[in-house]
Prior knowledge:
The chain is an all-alpha fold. 44% of the residues lie in helices and 0% in strands.
Amino acid sequence: MNILIATLLFASCSAFAPAAKVGRDVSSAVITHMSYEDQIGAQPPLGFYDPLGLVADADEATFNRLRYVEIKHGRISMLAVLGHIATTGGLRLPGDIDLHGTSFDSIPAGIAGLSKVPAAGLVQMFAFVGFLELAVMKDVTGEGEFVGDFRNGAFDLGWDVFSPEEQERKRGVELNNGRAAMMGILALMVHEMLPSHDPYMINGLVGFPIDFNAGF
């Protein structure tokens, strides 16, 4: 748990180093000591924000590696926040999670759910994530136009019909949403481990309390 929180903290800090613009991602480290103040992600209200100096002396290869890590963590965190909200709202798969009759409905939301999922289920989830990481969620074909482009010539969804300006805007939107989600899922986990065990404690402070994991 401590390792997971530390990883997300590091990812959250590196999240504010900006992304490269369309067509400007570089695959080699020939150029060094670049300026990144005008890249995607350096936008109001913070502008260029790199408090840890992660790209202060970084070459393009290092910058692109950090950008890849940020995008990946942002995408995972967006899914995590959405999953947390959905399961807190009561959404569950039908049926049982194992052959012993453990229903999906009996699994609480958030970190508390990890102790209720059978060991075989956890192994399957980790194996599936590992498969995605090693074989799917990366530039397998080498056709990626920018860092984080995992279409691999098959999963386009109309990206090429957008103008370069709209593509740049959408990439900026993804970065910002990913940054917010990294901070959001970290806050949800920390709040769940506090004495109140309520990841949505902020709702209670503003008059809209959520009875988190009631009945579990």
